[in-house]
Amino acid sequence: MRLIATGRLAAQHLTTNPGRNLLSAMGIGVGVCVLLLIAGLGLGARDIVLKEVMRELPVDIVEVIPKSVDLGLFQMGEKTLFGEAARLDDKALDALRALPEVQNAYPKLEVKLPMGAHGGARFFGRRLYTDLFMTGLDEALLRERIPAFRDAPDVLPVVVSDQLLAIYNASVAPNLGTPKLSPETLTGFMFEVQIGRSLMLGNRGVKRVGDERARVVGTSPFAMRLGVSVPLATARRLLNSYALEPKLDDYQAILLRATSVADLPEIKRKVEALGFSIDASAQKTSRLMGTATLLASLLGILVLLLAALNIAHGFFASLSERRRELATLRAVGATRGDVVSLVLTQAFFLGIFGGLGGVIAALGITNLIDWAALRFVADLPFSPRSFFALPLWLVFTGLSAAILASVVGALWPAISAARAPVAAALADGG
Amino acid sequence: MTSDVILRAGGVRKEVVDGERRTAILDDIHLAVRPGESVALVGPSGSGKSTLLHILGALDNAYKGSVTIGAQALERLSDKQRARLRNQSIGFVFQSYNLLAHLSARENVLLPAQFSGSPPDGERALAILEKVGLADKAARKPALLSGGERQRVAIARALYNHPRIILCDEPTGNLDGQTGKDILRLFENLRADGATFLIATHDDQVADFSDRVLRISEGRLR
User: Fold this and answer.
1) Chain A contact for B79, CB < 8 A?
2) 3-state DSSP assignment of residue A227
3) Average pLDDT, chain B
4) Which of A253, A277, A398, B5 could form a disulfide with A32, with the two C-beta atoms 3.0–4.6 Å apart?
5) How far is residue B74 from each of residues A116, B31, B57, B69, B134, measured CA to CA in Å?
6) What HEC string does A252-285 produce?
7) Residues of chain B positioned with their CB less than 8 A from the CB of A329
8) Contact, A32 vs A362, CB < 8 A?
9) Rounded to whole angstroms, how far apart are CA atoms A389 and A391?
């Protein structure tokens, strides 16, 4: 009952000095808006990097890599410091497949050969060349997205990464004036691959140079991001044919599909016991970007702190003017606690109004920026729908921060007002 | 006899400190107010009557001596208990009305209910406003009321919680002669209903209306 009465009194009082209250609420609103914009931009960028650029694996798949020493941003192969690291070979593959929590294991073999791709006259109107990087992937993994996959000994069946296609469409095609491609139009595209020589690597480590025909058979999220992937058998054939010292089971990584997501911690433990690591670069990037976002969000928090100071200043001035009013409330039965509650409730309302204003402003600005980017900025890779991510929890955090800043700002003035001598305040009026 | 007394003050003394110097602004005050009585506390400006009224009304607890309202000794009450006493047992009427500008007349009358813990009784507020002759102006804000009307609203507010005593500090001080008389007539009507008044004033009209006059000068009752 008393709470409702206090709320009603506080709300009624907000209408007495709308100009000052609006200014105080605006200070809070600006802080919340800045906080949401910075945090939203950070989260949005992280989403783009993780979902589009780094493309996280499905939740039930982890990537096992040779053990490395983590030095924060950099990783170092363990053999450089602590001797030879455990190799990801067929023996390791069998051991990993044997884990009861693992449904399947898919090896990834790097085709360590210099090579370059020529072709594209039909698509692009001229022949193009690029150095080429290639991995061999387990066919079972490739078939998940390309059911009609067929290996052909005379033509290299090539799978292209979804992300590579997105980058090409967003950045390469507009700059070269070439047409944009969909997975369907790309499938069936033929080109020549010269194996054993490339612009960057020359012809190191090869026993011969030769030409192969290649055909794109589809796209896959598992394919090499900045290169192409071929079935494991094809990769081994190429290594056998061209490499001086072919290592056919020296895998770059092994993808493990867990029987259940709940088994992942146990898989991680067993993988580490076998002397390998789980690739956590996505999580690390996520953590790094999260930290950067948090640090940048400090700017918003700083603005909120300034707003809290402004609230404190405003309340000191306002409560000084309201000394007699508060003394009258004391005279009719308000306790010191009632006065503090009344002032803090007013601050709470200011915080809510300011916070909501800040949220609305932030939503407006993010939409405006997204609209402007779409209209005035050239195509970006991955063409995000929005540069910002404003999940509900962030909006609630912003609102809570607004209320907190407002209430904390008003706390000291409220306590001072409650402690003010009543008789003196009443006597001031004559 | 004690049970007949609503308000009693014994040996009340209040000092103000200015550096090393202590000055008594009230000294050795003894008084008693009985139910239904109207007592005028008359004295010139600066004589200490408002200060005494604040002490008797549990608004100022920096004094020596004793004050009891009913059976409650103010010196022994916590801030919360004093607030409850003010809410339940004391009505205040001030010279400058002290109405909340953003509330209507009816809402101002209901103000004590906000701190009493019981739901506001709008019917009662209207009934009291009718008693003071303002039922038709219940929805008006103080700015739209005359001085006399504002003081009537303040009196209605003082009456809301059935106080044992109404403490008035220069209730006619801001009013012209006729309006002041109207207010005193209202006090007479309320007295007929059993209200008890202690009125601090320098207005002889108010003193004439009272059963008893206590004269205060330089902080002492004469």
Assistant:
1) yes
2) coil
3) 91
4) A398
5) 98, 15, 9, 7, 35
6) CEEEEEECCHHHHHHHHHHHHHCCEEECCHHHHH
7) 111, 115
8) yes
9) 6
CA–CA distance, A7 with A13 (Å, rounded to integer): 10
d(CA B148, CA B173): 11
From the list A325, A336, A426, the residue facing B100 with the nearest CB is: A325
Q: Do B117 and A1 touch (CB under 8 A)?
A: yes
Which residue is it, tokens 């000055």?
Answer: B23
Distance CA A423, CA A410 (A): 23
Sorting pLDDT into bands at 50, 70 and 90, what band is A55?
low
Q: Rounded to a whole number, what is the distance in Å from the CA of A396 to chain B's nearest CA?
A: 32
**Are A327 and A422 spatial neighbours (Cβ–Cβ below 8 Å)?**
yes
From the list A6, A336, A423, the residue facing B79 with the nearest CB is A336
A421 touches B: beta carbon within 8 Å: yes
What digits encode the pLDDT tens for the residues B51-89?
999 999 999 999 999 999 988 999 999 999 999 999 999
Q: Which of residues 29-48 of A touch B (CB under 8 A)?
A: none
On whether the CB atoms of residues A137 and A232 are closer than 8 A, the answer is yes
Please report where in the chains the tokens 């491609």 appear, as a residue: A181
CB–CB contact A16 B101 (8 Å):
yes
Mutate to test the interface with B, among A12, A14, A426 (most CBs of B within 10 A): A426
Give the minimum alpha-carbon distance from B82 to chain A in angstroms, rounded to a whole number.
8
Model pTM? 0.66
Reported ipTM: 0.92
Give B132-145 pLDDT, tens digit per residue. 889 999 999 999 99
**A82 has pLDDT over 50:** no
Q: Identify which has the larger pLDDT, A381 or A296.
A: A296
Long-range contacts of A81-89 (CB under 8 A, 24+ apart): A85/A275, A86/A274, A86/A275, A86/A276, A87/A250, A88/A64, A88/A250, A88/A251, A88/A252, A88/A253, A88/A254, A88/A276, A89/A249, A89/A250, A89/A251
| Residue A264 structure tokens | 């992942």
- Residues A162, A252 contacting (CB under 8 angstroms): no
Which chain B residues in 175-204 lie under 8 Å from chain A, judged by CB atoms?
none
Residues of B in contact with A16 (CB under 8 A): 101-102
Of A361, A379, A310, A327, which Cα lies nearest the Cα of A24?
Answer: A310
Strands (E), A111-201: 115-119, 128-131, 134-137, 155-161, 190-195
- Contact yes or no for A429 and B98 at CB 8 A: yes
Residue type, A406: S
A128-131 sheet: strands from edge to edge? A128-131, A115-119, A190-195, A210-220, A155-161, A228-231, A134-137, A102-110, A253-258, A61-66, A276-278
